[in-house]
Protein backbone atom coordinates (compact mmCIF):
# COMPACT_ATOMS: atom_id res chain seq x y z
CA UNK A 1 0.00 0.00 0.00
CA UNK A 2 1.30 3.44 -0.96
CA UNK A 3 -0.07 6.47 0.91
CA UNK A 4 -0.20 9.59 -1.25
CA UNK A 5 -0.66 13.12 0.08
CA UNK A 6 -1.59 15.91 -2.34
CA UNK A 7 -3.43 13.43 -4.53
CA UNK A 8 -5.97 16.01 -5.70
CA UNK A 9 -3.18 18.11 -7.23
CA UNK A 10 -1.37 17.66 -10.54
CA UNK A 11 1.75 15.90 -9.23
CA UNK A 12 -0.01 13.75 -6.64
CA UNK A 13 -2.69 12.81 -9.15
CA UNK A 14 -0.15 11.83 -11.82
CA UNK A 15 1.76 9.79 -9.23
CA UNK A 16 -1.36 7.95 -8.04
CA UNK A 17 -2.50 7.16 -11.59
CA UNK A 18 0.95 5.76 -12.41
CA UNK A 19 0.87 3.51 -9.36
CA UNK A 20 -2.68 2.34 -10.06
CA UNK A 21 -1.83 1.61 -13.69
CA UNK A 22 1.02 -0.60 -12.49
CA UNK A 23 -1.36 -2.51 -10.21
CA UNK A 24 -0.20 -1.06 -6.89
CA UNK A 25 -2.72 -0.35 -4.09
CA UNK A 26 -3.04 3.34 -3.24
CA UNK A 27 -4.30 5.12 -0.15
CA UNK A 28 -5.44 8.65 -0.97
CA UNK A 29 -4.64 10.97 1.94
CA UNK A 30 -6.80 14.10 1.76
CA UNK A 31 -8.42 16.63 4.05
CA UNK A 32 -11.64 17.07 2.08
CA UNK A 33 -13.82 13.97 1.95
CA UNK A 34 -15.93 15.60 -0.77
CA UNK A 35 -13.06 15.09 -3.20
CA UNK A 36 -12.70 11.38 -2.47
CA UNK A 37 -15.27 9.94 -4.90
CA UNK A 38 -13.14 10.00 -8.10
CA UNK A 39 -10.30 8.22 -6.31
CA UNK A 40 -12.59 5.66 -4.70
CA UNK A 41 -13.95 4.95 -8.19
CA UNK A 42 -10.39 4.20 -9.34
CA UNK A 43 -9.91 1.72 -6.51
CA UNK A 44 -8.15 3.83 -3.91
CA UNK A 45 -8.54 3.50 -0.18
CA UNK A 46 -9.14 6.91 1.41
CA UNK A 47 -7.75 8.39 4.62
CA UNK A 48 -8.98 11.80 5.81
CA UNK A 49 -6.23 13.87 7.43
CA UNK A 50 -5.20 17.51 7.51
CA UNK A 51 -1.49 17.96 6.91
CA UNK A 52 -0.97 19.58 10.32
CA UNK A 53 -2.77 16.77 12.20
CA UNK A 54 -0.05 14.38 13.37
CA UNK A 55 -2.48 11.84 14.83
CA UNK A 56 -4.58 11.59 11.66
CA UNK A 57 -1.46 11.43 9.49
CA UNK A 58 -0.02 8.65 11.65
CA UNK A 59 -3.14 6.59 11.02
CA UNK A 60 -3.02 7.41 7.30
CA UNK A 61 0.65 6.39 7.00
CA UNK A 62 0.41 3.21 9.09
CA UNK A 63 1.11 -0.10 7.32
CA UNK A 64 2.23 1.75 4.18
CA UNK A 65 5.05 0.35 2.10
CA UNK A 66 5.81 3.88 1.00
CA UNK A 67 4.54 7.42 1.61
CA UNK A 68 4.60 10.41 -0.72
CA UNK A 69 4.81 13.79 1.00
CA UNK A 70 3.70 16.97 -0.74
CA UNK A 71 4.00 20.05 1.44
CA UNK A 72 0.96 22.31 0.82
CA UNK A 73 2.37 25.42 -0.85
CA UNK A 74 2.05 28.74 0.96
CA UNK A 75 2.47 31.52 -1.60
CA UNK A 76 2.21 34.43 0.85
CA UNK A 77 3.84 33.11 4.05
CA UNK A 78 4.19 34.81 7.38
CA UNK A 79 7.78 35.71 8.38
CA UNK A 80 9.70 32.59 9.32
CA UNK A 81 7.27 30.25 7.49
CA UNK A 82 5.22 29.23 10.57
CA UNK A 83 2.52 27.64 8.39
CA UNK A 84 4.95 25.26 6.72
CA UNK A 85 6.87 24.60 9.93
CA UNK A 86 3.67 23.39 11.61
CA UNK A 87 2.93 20.98 8.75
CA UNK A 88 6.52 19.72 8.63
CA UNK A 89 6.50 19.03 12.38
CA UNK A 90 3.25 17.07 12.10
CA UNK A 91 4.49 15.08 9.10
CA UNK A 92 7.78 14.31 10.83
CA UNK A 93 6.02 13.09 13.98
CA UNK A 94 3.58 10.97 11.95
CA UNK A 95 6.30 9.32 9.89
CA UNK A 96 8.34 8.49 12.99
CA UNK A 97 5.28 6.98 14.65
CA UNK A 98 3.91 5.12 11.61
CA UNK A 99 7.29 3.86 10.34
CA UNK A 100 6.41 3.30 6.66
CA UNK A 101 8.89 1.37 4.56
CA UNK A 102 10.15 4.42 2.67
CA UNK A 103 9.34 8.09 2.01
CA UNK A 104 9.42 10.17 -1.17
CA UNK A 105 9.19 13.93 -0.59
CA UNK A 106 8.47 16.49 -3.29
CA UNK A 107 11.11 19.18 -2.86
CA UNK A 108 12.37 21.75 -5.37
CA UNK A 109 15.27 22.87 -7.48
CA UNK A 110 17.43 25.09 -5.29
CA UNK A 111 16.42 23.50 -1.98
CA UNK A 112 20.10 23.60 -1.01
CA UNK A 113 20.32 27.40 -1.41
CA UNK A 114 21.32 29.28 1.72
CA UNK A 115 19.65 32.53 0.63
CA UNK A 116 16.10 33.01 1.96
CA UNK A 117 13.29 32.87 -0.59
CA UNK A 118 9.81 31.41 -1.10
CA UNK A 119 11.27 27.93 -1.68
CA UNK A 120 12.92 27.96 1.76
CA UNK A 121 9.78 26.12 2.91
CA UNK A 122 11.10 23.06 1.09
CA UNK A 123 14.61 23.57 2.40
CA UNK A 124 13.08 23.29 5.87
CA UNK A 125 11.28 20.11 4.80
CA UNK A 126 14.55 18.53 3.70
CA UNK A 127 16.32 19.57 6.89
CA UNK A 128 13.66 18.06 9.16
CA UNK A 129 12.91 14.88 7.23
CA UNK A 130 16.46 14.14 6.13
CA UNK A 131 17.20 12.28 9.36
CA UNK A 132 14.13 10.03 9.37
CA UNK A 133 14.72 6.46 10.58
CA UNK A 134 13.66 5.03 7.21
CA UNK A 135 14.85 5.51 3.60
CA UNK A 136 13.89 8.95 2.26
CA UNK A 137 14.37 10.56 -1.13
CA UNK A 138 13.88 14.23 -1.96
CA UNK A 139 12.67 14.76 -5.52
CA UNK A 140 13.75 18.20 -6.73
CA UNK A 141 11.99 19.21 -9.96
CA UNK A 142 12.68 22.33 -12.00
CA UNK A 143 10.24 25.14 -12.79
CA UNK A 144 6.85 23.63 -13.68
CA UNK A 145 5.92 24.02 -17.33
CA UNK A 146 2.29 24.15 -16.18
CA UNK A 147 2.95 27.68 -14.87
CA UNK A 148 2.44 28.66 -18.51
CA UNK A 149 -1.30 28.27 -17.90
CA UNK A 150 -1.40 31.88 -16.69
CA UNK A 151 0.11 33.05 -20.00
CA UNK A 152 -2.51 31.51 -22.26
CA UNK A 153 -5.18 34.22 -21.92
CA UNK A 154 -2.85 37.20 -22.48
CA UNK A 155 -1.08 35.37 -25.32
CA UNK A 156 -4.41 34.68 -27.01
CA UNK A 157 -5.81 38.17 -26.40
CA UNK A 158 -2.76 40.45 -26.84
CA UNK A 159 0.07 38.35 -28.23
CA UNK A 160 2.25 39.34 -25.27
CA UNK A 161 3.19 37.35 -22.16
CA UNK A 162 4.70 39.08 -19.14
CA UNK A 163 7.79 37.39 -17.74
CA UNK A 164 9.39 37.64 -14.31
CA UNK A 165 12.06 35.21 -15.51
CA UNK A 166 14.80 37.36 -17.02
CA UNK A 167 16.66 37.84 -19.30
CA UNK A 168 14.16 36.55 -21.79
CA UNK A 169 16.69 34.34 -23.60
CA UNK A 170 18.11 32.69 -20.46
CA UNK A 171 17.25 29.01 -20.38
CA UNK A 172 16.43 27.36 -17.05
CA UNK A 173 15.41 23.82 -16.03
CA UNK A 174 11.68 23.29 -16.54
CA UNK A 175 9.63 20.10 -16.25
CA UNK A 176 6.10 18.80 -16.77
CA UNK A 177 4.12 17.67 -13.73
CA UNK A 178 3.40 14.41 -15.57
CA UNK A 179 7.11 13.63 -15.48
CA UNK A 180 7.31 14.58 -11.80
CA UNK A 181 4.47 12.22 -10.93
CA UNK A 182 5.90 9.40 -13.05
CA UNK A 183 9.37 9.66 -11.51
CA UNK A 184 7.89 9.89 -8.01
CA UNK A 185 5.99 6.65 -8.68
CA UNK A 186 9.16 4.96 -9.89
CA UNK A 187 11.04 6.08 -6.78
CA UNK A 188 8.32 4.79 -4.47
CA UNK A 189 8.70 1.31 -5.93
CA UNK A 190 12.51 1.31 -5.69
CA UNK A 191 14.66 0.05 -2.83
CA UNK A 192 17.43 2.16 -1.29
CA UNK A 193 18.98 3.00 2.04
CA UNK A 194 19.42 6.32 3.82
CA UNK A 195 18.86 9.74 2.25
CA UNK A 196 18.84 10.44 -1.48
CA UNK A 197 18.34 13.51 -3.68
CA UNK A 198 16.98 13.16 -7.23
CA UNK A 199 16.99 16.28 -9.42
CA UNK A 200 14.57 16.29 -12.36
CA UNK A 201 14.20 18.46 -15.45
CA UNK A 202 12.48 18.20 -18.80
CA UNK A 203 14.00 17.04 -22.11
CA UNK A 204 15.43 20.53 -22.83
CA UNK A 205 15.94 23.74 -20.87
CA UNK A 206 13.72 26.63 -21.82
CA UNK A 207 13.68 30.43 -21.73
CA UNK A 208 10.70 32.81 -21.68
CA UNK A 209 11.26 33.36 -25.40
CA UNK A 210 10.87 29.61 -25.94
CA UNK A 211 7.60 29.61 -24.00
CA UNK A 212 6.34 32.48 -26.18
CA UNK A 213 7.34 30.58 -29.33
CA UNK A 214 5.54 27.49 -28.09
CA UNK A 215 2.41 29.47 -27.38
CA UNK A 216 2.61 31.11 -30.82
CA UNK A 217 2.71 27.69 -32.47
CA UNK A 218 -0.10 26.33 -30.31
CA UNK A 219 -2.36 29.35 -30.77
CA UNK A 220 -1.55 30.06 -34.41
CA UNK A 221 -0.70 33.71 -33.81
CA UNK A 222 2.42 35.77 -33.03
CA UNK A 223 3.35 35.80 -29.34
CA UNK A 224 6.30 37.51 -27.68
CA UNK A 225 7.62 37.66 -24.14
CA UNK A 226 8.03 40.98 -22.34
CA UNK A 227 10.09 41.41 -19.18
CA UNK A 228 8.30 42.92 -16.18
CA UNK A 229 10.62 45.57 -14.69
CA UNK A 230 11.91 44.34 -11.34
CA UNK A 231 11.28 47.67 -9.62
CA UNK A 232 7.55 47.18 -10.20
CA UNK A 233 7.28 43.68 -8.73
CA UNK A 234 6.60 44.60 -5.12
CA UNK A 235 3.73 46.98 -5.86
CA UNK A 236 2.32 44.61 -8.48
CA UNK A 237 2.29 41.60 -6.15
CA UNK A 238 0.71 43.67 -3.37
CA UNK A 239 -1.98 44.85 -5.79
CA UNK A 240 -2.73 41.18 -6.44
CA UNK A 241 -3.37 40.62 -2.74
CA UNK A 242 0.00 39.57 -1.31
CA UNK A 243 0.84 40.86 2.16
CA UNK A 244 4.59 40.28 1.88
CA UNK A 245 5.94 39.91 -1.67
CA UNK A 246 9.60 39.70 -0.57
CA UNK A 247 9.89 35.86 -0.50
CA UNK A 248 8.46 35.62 -4.01
CA UNK A 249 10.79 38.36 -5.25
CA UNK A 250 13.75 36.58 -3.64
CA UNK A 251 12.76 33.35 -5.39
CA UNK A 252 12.56 35.03 -8.78
CA UNK A 253 15.92 36.70 -8.13
CA UNK A 254 17.32 33.27 -7.35
CA UNK A 255 16.25 31.88 -10.72
CA UNK A 256 17.39 34.99 -12.59
CA UNK A 257 20.73 35.27 -10.80
CA UNK A 258 21.41 31.55 -11.01
CA UNK A 259 21.66 30.61 -7.33
CA UNK A 260 18.44 28.63 -7.53
CA UNK A 261 19.72 25.74 -9.61
CA UNK A 262 20.39 22.04 -9.37
CA UNK A 263 22.96 21.10 -6.77
CA UNK A 264 24.45 18.35 -8.94
CA UNK A 265 24.60 20.37 -12.17
CA UNK A 266 23.07 19.43 -15.55
CA UNK A 267 25.00 16.15 -15.86
CA UNK A 268 23.50 14.83 -12.64
CA UNK A 269 19.84 15.38 -13.42
CA UNK A 270 17.18 12.90 -14.45
CA UNK A 271 15.65 13.98 -17.77
CA UNK A 272 11.89 13.89 -18.28
CA UNK A 273 10.04 12.84 -21.42
CA UNK A 274 7.23 15.41 -21.72
CA UNK A 275 7.94 18.58 -23.68
CA UNK A 276 6.31 21.99 -23.89
CA UNK A 277 4.10 21.12 -26.87
CA UNK A 278 2.35 18.29 -25.02
CA UNK A 279 1.92 20.43 -21.90
CA UNK A 280 0.42 23.30 -23.91
CA UNK A 281 -2.02 20.96 -25.64
CA UNK A 282 -3.25 19.81 -22.22
CA UNK A 283 -3.40 23.36 -20.85
CA UNK A 284 -5.29 24.65 -23.87
CA UNK A 285 -7.84 21.87 -23.62
CA UNK A 286 -8.26 22.74 -19.95
CA UNK A 287 -8.54 26.48 -20.61
CA UNK A 288 -11.07 25.96 -23.41
* Spans of at least 5 consecutive residues with low confidence: none
Strand order of the largest sheet: 3-2-1-4-5-6-10-12
Q: Which bin fits the share of residues in helices?
A: 40-55%
Q: What CATH first level would be assigned?
A: Alpha Beta
Q: Please state roughly what percent of the residues sit in beta strands, choosing from under 5%, 5-15%, 15-25%, 25-35%, 35-45% or over 45%.
A: 15-25%
CATH architecture grouping: 3-Layer(aba) Sandwich
* Tally of strands: 12
What does the oligomeric state look like here?
A: single chain
Largest sheet: 8 strands, parallel
TL;DR?
The chain is of the alpha/beta class and 288 residues long.
Main attributes?
8-stranded parallel β-sheet, two-stranded parallel ribbon, alpha/beta, Rossmann fold, 288 residues
